[in-house]
């Protein structure tokens, strides 16, 4: 359903090695937050002896190999595949059997500095205003409640800072009389969505500023600075992009899976890593080259605030909308074909076997049964590992 690099074999290069080799240089040139340092530490330690693990011993041929624990950090490129597949399995039980649109809401470049300085406040505002835009248009134009799932991304393919949210939106909604209001090939005008998003975001920024949320920024110490910024933003076209709807539910799930647990860059995109440069794939067969320090600087730009939820659900898909969701599902005359599309519950061992082709309970040499003997957790040494908590 989803796509993980693991399914294509082990990548040749590893971002963790770039972190281990060049982190000290990065910190000598750039200030890092506690959260950013913690993420780099987790990535550097992932699947190493520093996190402990076990030795796999074959009872038949005696083959031994160590297996180290994962860091499970959501920014780690090696720790997302199982989480992605589990998420897809859980969401398959909640998605309605209708087509879904893909809509993207992007913040204008003038707000990127604010986002870097106050990411939590600005990202919360973007989620709130983008979801309100969709839900209000659903009510005003369809007289219905939509189902919306949103995912925050902050990067371009060359790792530049570019905050935007991807929204998967039901092609229709639950009407006030309990009927389903269908939408065919057209959701809402993108210009209308852009203008509504702009108005809501400008109002939200004023509220945040009046409450003192942005006062620490030198550029806004002038009482009129914020109004001048908002005046410029009011004349800017806010980009909203909408794709034609997905026609099959498994396409929606696969697409969601790729977006929900994607990190800024995967190991599989690395083409070359040397002491002087990192070359990685962007899109359409193109590549991009930067120094290792610049690579890490761009990478940490996309570390989210601690505890920030980058996947959110609204309308029929909100946690509080369970009754409406079930009412909508029953009204859509779900048949046995819908049940066949649901993904069966699978253990993590089964998921890993599906993703990598490897049975972790069997010896890779003879196929015998493996016994696991715990390794004593080792204490990491050196400045890069000392900051982990």
Q: DSSP strand (E) fraction?
A: 15-25%
Give the radius of gyration: 24 Å
The strand line-up of the biggest sheet is: 9-3-6-5-13
As residue ranges, the low-confidence spans are 334-343, 377-389
Helix-strand makeup class: alpha+beta
What's the quaternary structure here? single chain
Kindly state the number of beta strands. 14
Which H/E pattern describes the elements?
HHEEHEHHEEEEEHHEHEEEHEHHHEH
Distance between the termini: 34 Å
Number of helices: 13
- Mind describing the biggest β-sheet? 5 strands, antiparallel
Q: What is the 3D form?
A: globular
Mean pLDDT, all residues? 84
Fraction of residues in helices?
25-40%
Description:
The chain contains 13 helices and 14 strands. With 389 residues, it is of the alpha+beta class. β5 and β6 form a beta hairpin. The model is unreliable at 334-343 and 377-389 (pLDDT under 50).
List the helices and strands and how they pair.
Elements: H1 15-29, H2 34-45, E1 53-58, E2 64-68, H3 81-92, E3 100-106, H4 112-117, H5 119-142, E4 144-145, E5 147-155, E6 161-170, E7 172-175, E8 180-182, H6 190-210, H7 225-234, E9 240-246, H8 249-260, E10 270-273, E11 278-281, E12 287-290, H9 292-300, E13 311-315, H10 322-331, H11 336-341, H12 348-356, E14 370-375, H13 383-386
Antiparallel strand pairs: 1-2, 1-14, 3-6, 3-9, 4-7, 5-6, 5-13, 7-8, 10-11, 11-12
Helix pairs in contact: 1-2, 1-9, 3-8, 3-12, 5-6, 6-7
Question: Can you give me a brief rundown of this structure?
Answer:
With 389 residues, the protein is α+β, with helices and mostly antiparallel strands. The chain contains 13 helices and 14 strands.
């Amino acid at each position: 359903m989803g796509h993980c690099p693991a399914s294509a074999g082990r990548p040749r290069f590893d971002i963790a090695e770039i972190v281990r080799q060049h982190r000290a240089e990065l910190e000598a040139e750039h200030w890092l937050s506690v959260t950013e340092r913690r993420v780099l530490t987790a990535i550097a330690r992932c699947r190493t002896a520093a996190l402990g693990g076990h030795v796999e011993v074959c009872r038949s041929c005696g083959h031994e190999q160590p297996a180290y624990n994962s860091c499970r950090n959501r920014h780690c490129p090696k720790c997302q595949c199982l989480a992605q597949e589990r998420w897809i399995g859980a969401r398959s039980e909640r998605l309605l059997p209708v087509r879904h649109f893909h809509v993207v809401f992007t913040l204008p470049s003038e707000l990127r500095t604010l986002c870097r300085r106050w990411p939590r406040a600005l990202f919360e505002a973007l989620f709130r205003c983008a979801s309100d835009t969709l839900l209000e248009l659903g009510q005003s134009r369809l007289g219905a409640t939509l189902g919306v799932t949103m995912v925050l991304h902050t990067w371009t393919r060359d790792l530049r800072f570019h905050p935007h949210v991807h929204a998967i939106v039901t092609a229709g909604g639950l009407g006030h009389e309990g009927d389903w209001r269908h939408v065919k090939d057209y959701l809402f005008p993108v210009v209308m969505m852009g203008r509504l998003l702009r108005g809501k975001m400008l109002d939200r920024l004023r509220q945040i500023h009046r409450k003192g949320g942005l006062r620490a920024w030198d550029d806004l110490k002038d009482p009129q600075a914020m109004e001048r910024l908002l005046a410029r933003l009011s004349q800017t076209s806010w980009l909203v992009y909408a794709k034609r709807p997905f026609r099959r539910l498994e396409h929606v799930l696969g697409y969601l899976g790729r977006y929900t647990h994607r990190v800024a860059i995967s190991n599989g995109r690395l083409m070359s890593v040397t002491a002087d440069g990192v070359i990685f794939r962007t899109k359409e067969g193109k590549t991009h080259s930067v120094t290792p320090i610049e690579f890490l600087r761009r990478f940490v730009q996309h570390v989210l605030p601690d505890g920030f939820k980058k996947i959110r659900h609204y309308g029929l898909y909100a946690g509080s909308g369970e009754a409406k969701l079930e009412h909508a599902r029953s009204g859509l005359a779900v048949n046995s074909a819908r049940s066949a599309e649901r993904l069966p519950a699978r253990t993590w061992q089964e998921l890993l076997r599906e993703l990598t082709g490897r049975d972790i309970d069997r010896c890779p040499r003879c196929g015998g049964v493996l016994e696991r003997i715990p390794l004593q957790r080792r204490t990491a040494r050196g400045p890069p590992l000392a900051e982990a908590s």
